[in-house]
Structure formats: structure tokens, C-alpha cells
Design a protein that fits this description.
Blueprint: E1 2-4, E2 15-19, E3 30-31, E4 37-38, E5 40-44, H1 54-65, E6 82-89, E7 92-100, H2 105-108, E8 114-115, E9 121-122, E10 126-130, E11 151-152, E12 155-159, H3 166-181, H4 184-189, H5 191-194, H6 197-210, E13 220-224, E14 234-237, H7 266-273, H8 279-290, H9 297-314, H10 316-324, H11 335-357, H12 364-367, E15 369-370, E16 381-383, E17 388-389, E18 395-399, E19 402-406
Parallel strand pairs: 15-19
Antiparallel strand pairs: 1-2, 2-5, 3-4, 5-7, 6-7, 8-9, 10-12, 10-13, 11-12, 13-14, 16-17, 16-18, 18-19
Length: about 400
């Protein structure tokens, strides 16, 4: 058990990383609380979150709206799961925590390295963690080409963490080059090669709807499942506390999201400003569909209320208030008062999306061409997730960089 976090380490209520070991001190994979089998876990202190549930609620929403675009052992889940616990340390009450699994190789089914005839590793799956704001985490470029250290231009090699080298970082370097240096034509035609459009579309809807300000692409993971078979990047979020009207330090940001947020990282900026591949329409259509279900105000408020009832009925909120009120942020004795602020912010943010950010945006379907006869056989056909499909595939597809509807 050790302290966890960069900024949060300075607070008295600290987060912890947990490693499970057996009686001989060897690492042990265990299924704790029925979440999944793993050897490392997180106890999230949520010290600056005035409702102690932002990170969990946001991940619940993300898991309900977006999945990994390939099969995994964990049912294509692309975010953490967790549950709330009360922590005692050496018999002393230490407060309300969220116990969660981690974003790691097992969650995303990244391929392990192989070993060649000389005993050297052949790296396949890679996982990068955005740790600091930099040109590289905004996908605009990088200041140094040196790739032999675990940390590089604001990114950290999360897997395979034991092999920081040029080979491990090459997919990330090339992805940043694609985002920052490609021509407009190359940007569009490269979509099926470099990332999953559905994943990016969902991620943008997620950030906009929840007002998540600190995660584009700092506080995000990028991964390649097997670089020997391609370099397509998957986005996975983490550390979602700066959201829903609450800032990274526990203060309020009362204003809803603004369009400039989309432009803060190079890939979404270029897609949005040029409406490349009908990106605006794709994001708008997805938001419109999800606001009837998982992103509806009724569903959102229901999630908040369900966790609040659990806090109150168990007495956990009363104990948390007595232990940590004012350290480091003030808490409301009645949690519903704080939730009223969050619910009002969510309502105003949805209105901002409808009346300003998406105002005048046409449906992505309307912008698509209806296909004529099949293109020549040498033209590859991809679905909107960027997966190559047969020429007989029906539905929305990309052919030679152009969207079409095949009927």
C-alpha cells in the first residue's frame, strides 16, 4: 500500500495504490469485491470533490455510452469500475473512499511482448498515460525525440513500463506527427489507420456533456492493442474529478462548457474546424441520441441521488463530514444541497450545447453521400469505427476518405 497521485499527495486525505500479495510476499491476482481479477487496485480519496462521487459517476456514464472497438475478456469495457467503501487505517476511521480497478494492460487486452531468438523482447501492445500539459499531450508536436526514458514530453509509458525505448514510443510519435503535420487530405484518409472515429466521437460527447476540462489529452490514456498489426490509438479516460462544475482544486467553475475547449487539442481542433469526415455531425448525432438515454437529465440526476442515498442511509456522509469538512474543501452537512448545484450546472450545460455549440450543426447522416455502384475492388471499405469491411457491407462507410451510405 502506498500513496498515489501527483497533486493529491499534498492533502491530508490521501489516495492509495494497493498491491495484493500472498503469504510469501509474492504478487497475487485476486478478484476483490467481484470487480475482476488483478493484483493492483486504487483507493480514491476524492479529497477535493465536494460530492465525493464525480469520478465514479463520470466513469459509470462513460462505461454506459462507449466500449472498446474490439473483443476483450472484460466485455469491451473501456473504463474503471468501482464501489464506495469506508476506510480504517490501523483501527482509525479514515473516511469515505472509492475502491476501483485500474486502466491497464488487462483491462484493454493489450498484447504482451514476445521474446525473439536472442531473448530480447518484441514489443506489441503499448499504453501511454498523459501526465502533464505539453505540446505532445495536446497532439501538436514534441520538444525532444529522446524516447529511452519512462516519461516523454508529458507522456508516461504505462505499458510495457519495463521497456522504455524508441520501439515502444514509435506509435505515439507517429500518431502525433499525423495529428500535427498531415495535410487535410491525409488527415481524412488516415482516419482508419490512426484512430477509431467512434471512440473519439464518444470521447468528445463525454467531455462536452460532463464538462470534463482536464482530459484532452492530459489525464487520458492512449493505447495500441498490437503494434505489429497496426498503430490505431484507443482513448481511455482517467482522473475525472475536474468536471460537472467542479475544478481540479475543489473550487467551482459555474459556467458551462465552451466551444474553445474542443479546439484545445490538435486532432479534435482540425476535425471540428474543417468538419473533416463530417466530424461535427457525428458528434452532434451521438449527443442527440444519448441525451434520450444515458445523458438525459433524469438518468444523470438518478445516478447522483442513488449514491447520495447510500451515503446518507449508511451514515457514511455524516462520518465523512465530521472527519474531513474543511480539509481541504468545505462540505455541506446535507449533501443534497451540493447536488442541487451540480444538477443545475448539468441542466445549463445541456442548454449551452443545444443553443450554442451545436447550433446550426447538421446531422452527420445528412452530410453523407449516397453511394452509387461499388467502387473498384482496390478501394478499401471501412465502417465508422475504422474497421475494414467487405465491399458488400451495408450502412455508413468510408471509401477513399469519403463517407457514404451503402444500401
Amino acid at each position: 500500500m502506498k500513496y498515489r497521485g501527483n497533486t493529491s499527495i499534498r492533502y491530508d486525505k490521501k489516495s492509495f495504490a494497493i498491491k495484493v500479495v500472498d503469504g510469501q510476499g509474492e504478487e497475487l491476482n485476486a478478484n476483490l469485491f467481484g470487480l475482476r481479477r488483478d493484483k493492483t487496485w486504487v483507493l480514491d480519496a476524492m479529497a477535493v470533490d465536494r460530492i465525493r462521487m464525480r469520478n465514479r459517476v463520470n466513469f459509470d456514464v462513460w462505461n454506459a455510452m462507449s466500449r472498446v472497438p474490439y473483443d476483450t475478456e472484460l466485455d469491451r469495457r473501456n473504463g474503471t469500475v468501482g464501489l464506495f467503501v469506508e476506510l480504517f487505517i490501523n483501527g482509525e476511521y479514515h473516511g469515505l473512499y472509492c475502491f476501483t480497478d485500474k486502466v491497464n494492460r488487462k483491462l484493454l487486452d493489450l498484447k504482451k511482448p514476445r521474446v525473439d531468438d536472442k531473448g530480447q523482447p518484441i514489443i506489441r501492445g503499448v499504453l501511454y498515460k498523459g501526465r502533464e500539459w505539453s505540446s505532445a499531450t495536446r497532439l501538436r508536436g514534441y520538444e525532444t525525440d529522446t524516447t529511452w526514458q519512462k516519461k516523454w514530453n508529458g507522456w508516461e509509458l504505462a505499458y510495457p513500463e519495463d521497456y522504455p525505448c524508441e520501439e515502444a514510443y514509435l506509435p505515439l510519435v507517429r500518431f502525433i506527427d499525423y495529428c500535427a503535420k498531415s495535410s487535410n487530405e491525409q488527415l481524412q484518409t488516415g482516419i482508419p489507420k490512426w484512430f477509431y472515429m467512434d471512440n473519439l466521437r464518444d470521447y468528445m460527447v463525454f467531455l462536452l456533456s460532463q464538462g470534463i476540462l482536464d482530459n484532452l489529452f492530459k489525464n487520458a490514456y492512449l493505447s495500441v492493442v498490437d503494434k505489429s498489426k497496426g498503430n490505431r490509438m484507443l482513448i481511455t479516460p482517467w482522473d475525472l474529478d475536474c468536471s460537472l462544475g467542479g475544478s481540479w482544486n475543489g473550487s467551482y467553475y459555474t459556467n458551462p462548457i465552451w466551444e474553445g475547449f474542443i479546439l484545445s487539442a490538435e486532432l479534435p481542433r482540425r476535425l471540428w474546424e474543417g468538419n473533416v469526415a463530417g466530424f461535427k455531425g457525428l458528434v452532434y448525432d451521438r449527443w442527440q441520441a444519448l441525451r434520450q438515454t444515458v445523458l438525459s437529465e433524469e438518468a444523470f440526476c438518478g445516478r447522483l441521488d442513488a449514491y447520495a442515498r447510500m451515503f446518507e442511509e449508511s451514515g457514511a456522509w455524516e462520518r465523512e463530514y465530521a472527519k474531513w469538512n474543511g480539509n481541504p474543501v468545505p462540505l455541506k452537512r446535507n449533501i443534497s444541497e451540493e447536488l442541487d448545484y451540480v444538477k443545475d450546472w448539468y441542466h445549463r450545460n445541456a442548454e449551452e450545447l443545444a443553443n450554442h455549440i451545436f447550433l446550426g450543426v447538421e446531422s452527420g447522416v445528412k452530410e453523407m453521400k449516397v453511394s452509387a455502384p461499388l467502387r473498384p475492388s482496390h478501394s478499401a471499405v471501412y465502417n465508422l469505427s475504422g474497421q475494414r469491411v467487405s465491399s458488400h457491407y451495408k450502412g455508413l462507410v468510408i471509401v477513399d476518405g469519403h463517407k457514404m451510405v451503402r444500401r
